[in-house]
Amino acid sequence: MALIFVTGSDTGVGKTHVAGLLARRLARDGFTQVIKPVESGAGAGRPADAKKAAGKWAEAHTLLTLPAPIAPLAAAKKARKPLDLALLLKLYRAVPQAPCRVVEGAGGVAVPIDPKGKDWADFAAAIKPTVAIVVVEDRLGAINQARLAISYLRRRYDGPIGVWLNAIKKPSKEVAAANRAGLAESWIPLLGESGKGEKSARFHFLPR
Q1: Which candidate in 15, 36, 52, 169 is catalytic?
Q2: What pTM does this model have?
């Protein structure tokens, strides 16, 4: 089973956009799922991230929805709902398996999803994905963000890992070139690049 875990250096860096690009590519090889273990702030006319990423080519699963648009633990407390790593793993493992699966975390990689401080690095270690992708905004500062996020993730997760640069606003040629050189010099694999729209995607690995 192809299993890609998508996390980010921060919230708002384009994880859902990248998850959608990956799901569309994986769907060429077979039935594909997009899974969001927990999402806060969905509803009230705002489509769930999993549904946005899945589009017409994948099956969407949001395992735990919390109304308040705040950090998951705070949203769970406000909704008086339980939230911890064990619960998310139980919900995740209850989803029938598919040949291809994209799992998107909420917020950045270090966002707590457990009262004991466990986060998406712990989740990744538990589900053992084919590869873990850290989405980083393609801008000045991306090298620092990528190094911090990758270093943090590697403390708990020892599987294949890399960065996806997503340009929310197109960077200058000088910044874009420096970001790619900085990743290479830091021995961080660049697994993909994207901007706005589906045609902007460039895959530097074969999702399968």
Answers
A1: 36
A2: 0.95
